[in-house]
Amino acid sequence: MHAANGRPIHLIEDQSEFEQLCQDWTAQGQLAFDTEFLRTNTFYPKLGLLQIADESACFLIDPHSISSWEKFTVLLKKPETEFCVHSCSEDLNLLYTSINSVPAKLFDSQIAAAFLGLGFSLSYQALVLQLFGQEIPKDETRSDWLKRPLSKTQINYAANDVCYLLDLQEVLQEQLASKKMLSWFEEECANQITLAIAFENEDSWRNSYLGISNSWKLSDKKLLRLQKLCLWRELKARERNKPRNWIAKDVDMFCLANLDSATMDDVEQLELSDRRFSSRYGNEIIDLLGSQMDSGPAIDRSQLNFPLRPALRKKLKSCQSIVTGLADKLSMAPELLARKRLLQDLVRDYDNYGELRWRGELSGWRRELLEPEIKRLFA
């Protein structure tokens, strides 16, 4: 069988053969990769297939046949080997939670396309069509990648998902270099690796309450409750390997935190989305809310997603205009340069601290581009 670009497809179902390939790949400067997985009723995705492409062929590694990933993790950690992928976030999370490793160096063709103004969140199929005029079918999106044996259409689909990635890397990197955007792009790819690792860091789970709608309406005491509840949900979802919303929905987290007292009667009287919640977790919740707050990040109301007052909304719109204008000048996707949420945080920080705080995603290359214009706006 051959992929859409003519390269042969090899299905790898043997540990020793896989390890030999890993050894051979250590001499490669670039490798393309993708994953197929299933995530319908679990918190962690289940790895169904790992696809690797080099200059000679496409290799489909069956994880059901691999007992040790040690040789592959060594390869991933090599800074001299660049792993090319399209839309990396889910793949990085899957690798990190499955084999506890992510690439040391990454080239994300979706991010590259956004830098070059080809489109934001552009699909792999659309980018291949745009640059190479080749159509790739997307007919196995909902396929069961855990079922064996794999069908011929599954094998073709999986190989086609990586077969053009090295070609994309070559074309896109040349364009990024010619537009003097390569260093910004490399920084953004490195950020994606950092984010994938941070997703499994308990310190970040402690701040998950910040994403709950209307949390700004709660008192400090109730915010502490919400923080405890959201951390409990993060731990419980991972412990039971169930989707976060299967444990408790955001609206229920808010209702529980907003209780004036925490007794079983109080919990049972709440009209929660899941009527079985109190019988499943009621006692746990009562014990949790009655216990002392564990050490963790202090409540910082300035980080809450409270509505902006009129003067700040005006500032936000001005910031958005600056982003749009600068992105247009650079022929870059404005959503990549700065999404609305990041600008809202910037405006809130200025209101709370009297200065622009270029933190998180707004640091680095984004700050380099935006600070001169936005600083004048707030002067």
Mean pLDDT: 94
Main beta sheet: strand number and arrangement? 6 strands, mixed
The helix/strand series, from N terminus to C terminus, equals EHEEEHEHEHHHHHHHHHHHHHHH
CATH topology of the largest domain, by name, is: Nucleotidyltransferase, domain 5
Which characteristics define this entry?
Nucleotidyltransferase, domain 5, DNA polymerase, domain 1, six-stranded mixed β-sheet, 8% strand
Note down, in words, how this protein is organized.
With 379 residues, the chain is of the alpha/beta class. The chain has three domains: 9-200, 2-Layer Sandwich (Nucleotidyltransferase, domain 5), CATH 3.30.420.10; 203-301, HRDC domain (DNA polymerase, domain 1, Orthogonal Bundle), CATH 1.10.150.80; 307-378, HRDC domain (DNA polymerase, domain 1, Orthogonal Bundle). 52% of the residues lie in helices and 8% in strands. It has helices at residues 15-25, 70-76, 89-99, 109-115, 124-132, 152-163, 165-178, 182-198, 202-205, 220-240, 244-247, 250-257, 264-269, 277-290, 310-330, 334-337, 340-353, 365-378, and strands at residues 9-12, 30-38, 46-53, 58-61, 82-85, 106-108. Helix 3 (89-99) packs across helix 8, helix 10 (220-240) crosses helix 12 (250-257) and helix 15 crosses helix 18. The protein is globular. The model has no long low-confidence stretch (mean pLDDT 94).
